[in-house]
């Protein structure tokens, strides 16, 4: 005889599993749709410079996260309705909130990561940790070409490598630094600074992400200085001087960038050292 109780339970379980799969797939599809939209948005955006709103900076990370989720839900709805105009109207605000959260995390994020054995996987995990949970571009290598504008004009300061070259170039520079950092242990201060400046500039040239390249580069710079000089160094320098140094490095002159790094060490000479 048919056991109707068992059949009913099986039907209920199947229904629950079906609903769970549907919801899960719906979330995946929505996230993918938002990611595709943001990729296109970043690709065609005239400038990758973000203007953080003053009121956002004063908010707590929890308040910013709530606003992030609210904007994400609104964007999802607009994209589902194919209302790109409304989605685009939210994109700048969305980017500003993400950047504000990343700025707060950047100053509190601690990492025991060792740069001499840094892999792409570990780098992506570090990148992901900078951003709010479920941010579509976190921990993902860019898939499109980008252009970095000059601080002084709308002309390109730099055109990073094509997207299909990024992973290979990133792997090579991480391997190079892994070997170089070990060789530097008994090197002069000048040699260490030169190698760190070279890595910093080349990483930014590769521009592996659509968002957060500068933040990741700075985090790696702090870790490298800590490893090579046994100091916790605060990165305090003029934005104008920094971009000028990068522009000169684009022309194969890293003198200014090395000076900035050397000055950071001088300013932090009173910081405690590590055994």
Report what the structure shows.
The protein has 275 residues and is mainly alpha-helical. The chain folds into 2 domains: 108 residues, no CATH class; 161 residues, Orthogonal Bundle (Fic-like fold), CATH 1.10.3290.10. Helices cover 66% and strands 2% of the residues. Strands 1-2 form a two-stranded antiparallel ribbon. β1 and β2 form a beta hairpin. α3 packs antiparallel against α4, α6 packs antiparallel against α7 and α7 packs across α10. The longest helix is centred in the first third of the chain and has 41 residues. It is elongated. The C terminus is likely disordered.
Q: What is the distance, rounded to the nearest whole angstrom, between the alpha carbons of the first and last residues? A: 77 Å
Might you state the CATH topology name of the largest domain? Fic-like fold
How many β-strand stretches? 2
SSE run: HHHHHEEHHHHH
Query: Helix count, per DSSP?
Result: 10
Radius of gyration: 23 Å
**Biggest sheet, strands in spatial order?**
1-2
Low-pLDDT parts are 46-55, 271-275
Shape-level CATH architecture of the largest domain: Orthogonal Bundle
Q: What is the quaternary state of this protein?
A: single chain
> What's the CATH C level of the largest domain?
Mainly Alpha
| Strand fraction | under 5%
Judged by helices, strands and strand pairing, the structural class is: mainly alpha
Biggest β-sheet strands, sense, barrel: 2 strands, antiparallel
Question: CATH superfamily of the largest domain, please?
Answer: Fido-like domain
Tally the structural domains.
Answer: 2
Mean pLDDT: 84
Q: In one word, what is the shape?
A: elongated
The amount of helix comes to 55-70%
């Amino acid at each position: 005889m048919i056991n109707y109780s068992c059949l009913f339970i099986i039907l209920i379980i199947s229904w629950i599993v079906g609903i769970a799969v549907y919801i899960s797939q719906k979330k995946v599809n929505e996230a993918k749709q938002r990611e595709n939209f943001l990729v296109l948005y970043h690709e065609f955006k005239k400038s990758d410079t973000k203007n953080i709103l003053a009121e956002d900076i004063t908010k707590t990370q929890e308040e910013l996260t709530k606003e992030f989720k609210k904007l994400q839900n609104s964007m999802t709805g607009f994209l589902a309705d194919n209302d790109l105009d409304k989605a685009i109207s939210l994109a700048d605000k969305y980017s500003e909130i993400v950047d504000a959260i990343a700025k707060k995390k950047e100053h509190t994020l601690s990492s025991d990561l060792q740069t001499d054995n840094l892999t792409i996987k570990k780098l992506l995990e570090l990148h992901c940790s900078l951003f709010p949970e479920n941010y579509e571009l976190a921990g993902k290598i860019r898939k499109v070409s980008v252009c970095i504008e000059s601080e002084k004009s709308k002309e390109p300061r730099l055109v990073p490598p094509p997207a299909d070259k990024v992973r290979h170039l990133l792997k090579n520079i991480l391997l190079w630094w892994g070997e170089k950092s070990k060789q530097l242990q008994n090197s002069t201060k000048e040699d260490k600074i030169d190698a760190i400046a070279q890595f910093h500039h080349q990483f930014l040239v590769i521009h592996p992400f659509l968002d957060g390249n500068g933040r990741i580069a700075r985090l790696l710079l702090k870790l490298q200085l800590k490893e090579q000089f046994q100091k916790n160094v605060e990165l305090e320098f003029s934005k104008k001087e920094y971009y000028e140094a990068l522009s000169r490095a684009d022309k194969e002159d890293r003198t200014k960038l090395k000076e900035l790094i050397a000055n950071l060490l001088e300013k932090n000479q009173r910081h405690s050292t590590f055994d």
